[in-house]
Design brief:
alpha/beta; Rossmann fold; four-stranded antiparallel sheet; 10 helices; 10 strands
Amino acid sequence: MIEASGLCKFYGDFAAVRDVSFTVPLGQVCAFLGPNGAGKSTTLKLLTGYLAPSRGSASIAGFDVSTHRMECARRLGYLPENGPLYAEMTPLSLLRFFGEARGLGGARLRERIGAVVAQCFLDEVLEKSISKLSKGYRQRVGMAQVLLHEPEVLIMDEPTTGLDPNQIREVRNLIRALGQTKTVLLSTHILQEVEAVADRVVMIDGGRKVFDGTPAGLLEHGATLDLAFYRLTGNLAALPSPPAPEAAAAEDAPDA
């Protein structure tokens, strides 16, 4: 459902993404991990057609993003980090606008608005101006807009940014539920997201893929997800080294 094949993106001599390849099948939640500046958001923009690759290709549900953009858009819901919203609108008017833009109308549009409002817990703010909403509520409005046309593929860039712990739990539950019938690619640098929702992990560092496997497989690189992350992204030196067994035994020994 999602395929990246040799994706590269160059800005002059700088390579933001270097030869990244992976696939995500139907019914899987894949966490896309990496430190800040690793190339996660750039890769997502290449997959969704917001950027053209310097080399390589991307496809959504079997359609090449470069040559079948509209077919991909019909099947894709994309939530960018800090996604743009029309601040003067209310969540209800925004959902109506985007629904009509996607060809929905009448009873079908009302049904879908009701469904995403319930999924994203927007009842209390439906008639409030988006400019007056908290960051967490704006994030949920963005997610509702992404789900409105029932896409087969969801690509989300840091979807829990700005949410409080209760809202994070709700969004994670929603992502797990969506992953049963849809394909979800979830960009994050929060390791708890992996434990909470992911069936699979793809990790990049410096624009290159450094891991592709299950969360359990990730733990083969370290006793904890944090340690595995540090090792795979080359930051192990930043961790304090544990004392050698002999040194630890000497420290524990009673004074003479």
